[in-house]
Amino acid sequence: MHTTTEILSEKELEYKLNEFRHVLLDYDYSDVENVVFMNIDALNSYIQKYQDNPFERQYQDLEQIFNSIIPFIPSSIPDEAVEAITNILETKYEDRDVIKKNIQFNVKMDFIEMVKGLSSEREWKELLELCKDIRNAKEIMTTESVLH
Hints:
By secondary structure, the protein is mainly alpha-helical. It is 71% helix and 0% strand.
């Protein structure tokens, strides 16, 4: 499920997570501050018509950060389960990458909703600590696998 095999330092992970939170919750939409979208179709039309709009930029920024942090974010689906599921389904569907991308999409959406649902700075700090714990566990596993 990893998009990267690099283990970020704790400081770098914390920086990227804070950057993620800022991009998700405090993105600059000043380009469209005077625009009112009457419905979802109007928004979709705007996104299709105007390239490099703030919605696309936010999505691209979030994706770039996700590429670094996804191995360290909490998920209800552990990496081992993803591997097992993709191996089982691979024999039937033969397209492991598509399956992994769908699972990763769901993990990303869960994390976005988790961050959006936080109601206090204390909850954010707890989430940061959880991500650091996941990072530390992966670092230990990587170190042990190299030693054996």
